[in-house]
């Protein structure tokens, strides 16, 4: 069986990391091209219809189509929909609204995967203080990440390294996409 998470991530990959804010990158794919590639991939990999809106919303977020992702996320009545909604508001930037949506998420299953990937990344880059802030007791704290992004937005890069936060944002999206593609809905398994 093909590794759908890796294929999906390769399909939506662009060379530079998403900004913490709303500014689109020149390297993003045109929306219609992105959607066409995803639709073809969804069909060829038999991705269930229930999983497609969240995967499309995640791809749109990654390619800086925040408003389009927002429209989709609003109609996804799951914790994953709330997670995508929170990320979109964090990038707007509307930090209070992002926190509201993270409260609706609760503890998402992919928070464990984010913590597993973020911890060694932060340790490797000498960010022990940021790790203790974002990963208290080894658990991903999305509210602390919102606060860190808000800090950079309000104070500039002097306090925190925006490149580090952008890498963490990539880890967050990759973990969420992997969770989506390995969940019972996405794999077609019964729960």
Structure in words:
- It is globular, with a radius of gyration of 16 Å.
- The protein is mainly α and 191 residues long.
- The longest helix has 21 residues.
- The protein contains 11 helices and no strands.
- The two termini are 20 Å apart.
Q: Give the DSSP E fraction (strand runs of 2 or more residues).
A: under 5%
> Which structural class is indicated by helix and strand composition?
mainly alpha
Biggest β-sheet, characterized?
none
| Chain-averaged pLDDT | 92
User: What order do the helices and strands follow?
Assistant: HHHHHHHHHHH
Give the number of DSSP strands. 0
What is the count of helical runs? Answer: 11
Number of domains: 1
List keywords for this structure.
mainly alpha; single chain; 0% strand; disordered C terminus; 191 residues
Question: What's the quick description here?
Answer:
With 191 residues, the chain is an all-alpha fold. It is built from eleven helices and no strands.
How is this fold's topology laid out?
Blueprint: H1 4-12, H2 31-44, H3 52-62, H4 66-74, H5 79-91, H6 95-105, H7 110-124, H8 128-134, H9 142-155, H10 162-182, H11 184-187
């Amino acid at each position: 069986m093909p590794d759908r998470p890796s294929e999906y991530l390769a399909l939506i990959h662009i060379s530079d990391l998403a900004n913490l804010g709303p500014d689109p990158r020149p390297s993003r794919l045109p929306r219609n091209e992105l959607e066409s590639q995803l639709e073809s991939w969804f069909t060829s990999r038999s991705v269930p219809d229930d999983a497609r809106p969240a995967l499309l919303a995640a791809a749109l977020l990654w390619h800086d189509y925040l408003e389009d992702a927002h429209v989709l996320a609003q109609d996804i009545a799951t914790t994953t929909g709330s997670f995508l909604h929170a990320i979109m508001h964090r990038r707007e930037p509307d930090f209070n609204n992002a926190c509201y949506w993270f409260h609706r998420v609760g503890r998402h299953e992919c928070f464990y995967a984010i913590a597993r990937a973020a911890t060694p990344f932060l340790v490797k880059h000498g960010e022990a203080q940021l790790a203790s802030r974002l990963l208290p007791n080894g658990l991903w704290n999305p509210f602390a990440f919102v606060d860190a992004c808000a800090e950079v937005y309000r104070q500039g890069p002097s306090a925190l390294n925006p490149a580090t936060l952008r890498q963490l944002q990539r880890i967050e999206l990759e973990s969420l996409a992997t969770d989506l593609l390995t969940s019972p809905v996405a794999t077609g398994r019964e729960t």
